[in-house]
Design goal:
Blueprint (H helix, E strand, L loop, with lengths): L1 H12 L1 H13 L8 H13 L4 E5 L3 E7 L2 E11 L26 H17 L5 E9 L8 H7 L10 E12 L3 E3 L2 E4 L3 E8 L3 E2 L9 H19 L6 E9 L6 E2 L2 E10 L2 H21 L3 E8 L4 E3 L1 H15 L4 E3 L10 H4 L4 E9 L24 H14 L1
Parallel strand pairs: 3-4, 3-5, 5-16, 6-15
Antiparallel strand pairs: 1-2, 2-4, 6-16, 7-14, 8-12, 8-13, 9-11, 10-12
Helix pairs in contact: 1-10, 2-4, 4-10, 6-7, 8-10
């Protein structure tokens, strides 16, 4: 375990630098596929640490390469780079300086942690066999997703990974804890766009018009039976609508109403079938009430599945690093992640790094304008990922 001790020593030694990196990235967030400054910052880091890299993959994506002493397996480590269109409410020395843009999903931590992991692995590369790929990925937050774009742009054309690993912050999980779940973990995600059309007019004369608002409400309520009555009860599914635009008035029914929502599940056959049911039912309800419904379903990320063997090995490595008491099991989530594109092609695992701290008041959820992390996790998170990678190489 001499190498493990060295990894822990290096992770702790790089802590202040890792925090500084994270704060710089938090202060300078960039939106999906526009991570130009972020990409330049990471390329400069790799250059300064003499780590070979390719840039410009899917525009702003980067692939760093660390070669061990002898040939062996190939492990890819991934961090996402983009921020969200969220105005930050935190008042901090490193609050976002880009108005309306914020790292509200922890991607600043993911990048900073992977950069420190890269330094660690580069420092001990003569003690390992195999190859480490450092994947800095754009646009996790926006369809069609940077993972898909990087893969299509030949990310792994030269080096095919035996395993792909990613970490993700989790504010509900106490700082210092690491969470794993094998098998199905996160849902697929699709975007639903509907426009209900009819003859608008005076609200006091409903017999002379088509009440598009009423039709829309019937469609929203009616579509709930897709999940409750059409779907297999053993398959997790969610159908939700978060945006309705009816630009009428107290006494005006508009000609059209726009509705936007999301459908998520964990079964590809049911996913395809549900799309057809949504279209059929929405159009049918509209037609029965004298209106029409135009509908578009934009297919998003597939479901995320953590490979059983890879997850077990990564969990074992994390337990060796920080102790079994600090490793926990996760529940499934109906949120989505484009890391799922990697999991569909390669034995992969996404694990969770706890970043919450009730005593410090760090409890805001992901995508919140008040989101923050307990930066103490950066003492260990780079070392944990480095040890997971080394353990997988040794298998």
């Amino acid at each position: 375990m001499e190498l493990l001790s060295k990894i822990k020593e290096l992770s702790a030694a790089y802590y202040k630098e890792t925090v500084k990196t994270r704060q710089y990235l938090h202060k300078n967030p960039e939106l999906s596929f526009n991570e130009v400054g972020t990409s330049e910052f990471i390329c400069d880091f790799l250059k300064n640490n003499k780590i070979p890299f390719q840039k410009g993959i899917a525009k702003t994506g980067i692939l760093g390469i660390i070669e061990g002493k002898k040939p062996g397996k190939t492990i890819a480590l991934r961090a996402d780079m983009d921020a969200l269109p969220v105005p930050e409410k935190n008042i901090l020395p490193y609050t976002s300086k880009n108005k309306g843009v914020m790292h509200a999903c922890g991607h600043d931590m993911h990048m900073a942690s992977l950069m420190a992991t890269a330094k660690i692995l580069n420092s001990v590369k003569d003690s390992i066999n195999g190859r480490i790929l450092l994947v800095f990925q754009p646009a996790e937050e926006k369809l069609p997703g940077g993972a898909k774009a990087m893969l299509e742009d030949g990310l792994f054309k030269k080096y095919k990974p035996d395993h792909v690993i990613a970490q993700h912050v989790m504010p509900e999980l106490e700082a210092g804890k690491t969470g794993f779940r094998e098998g199905m973990y996160m849902a697929s995600t699709d975007e639903i766009y509907m426009t209900v059309k009819g003859k608008g007019g005076h609200a006091a004369m409903p017999h002379q018009i088509t009440d598009t608002v009423l039709v829309s409400s019937h469609i929203i309520v009616g579509l709930q039976q897709i999940v409750s009555r059409k779907g297999n009860v053993s398959v997790p599914s969610v159908l939700s609508f978060g945006k309705i635009i009816a630009q009428g008035a107290t006494n005006i029914i508009p000609d059209e109403v726009k509705i936007e929502g999301t459908f998520r599940t964990m079964d590809e056959t049911w996913r395809k079938s549900a799309h057809k049911e949504i279209v059929k039912l929405a159009k049918g309800i509209a037609a029965s009430m004298g209106a029409e419904c135009e509908i578009e379903i934009v297919k998003g990320y597939p479901f995320l599945v953590n490979d059983s063997k890879t997850t077990a090995m990564a969990e074992k490595a994390a337990s060796e690093y920080s102790g079994k008491r600090n490793v926990t099991q996760l529940d499934i989530r109906m949120t989505a992640e484009d890391f799922s594109y990697f999991t569909q092609l390669y034995p992969s695992v996404m694990y969770r790094t706890g970043t919450g701290n009730v005593k410090k008041g760090i409890v805001a959820p992901l995508h919140s304008p008040s989101f923050n992390i307990d930066e103490s996790v950066l003492k260990e998170s780079p070392g944990i990922m480095a040890w997971i990678a080394i353990s997988l190489l040794a298998e």
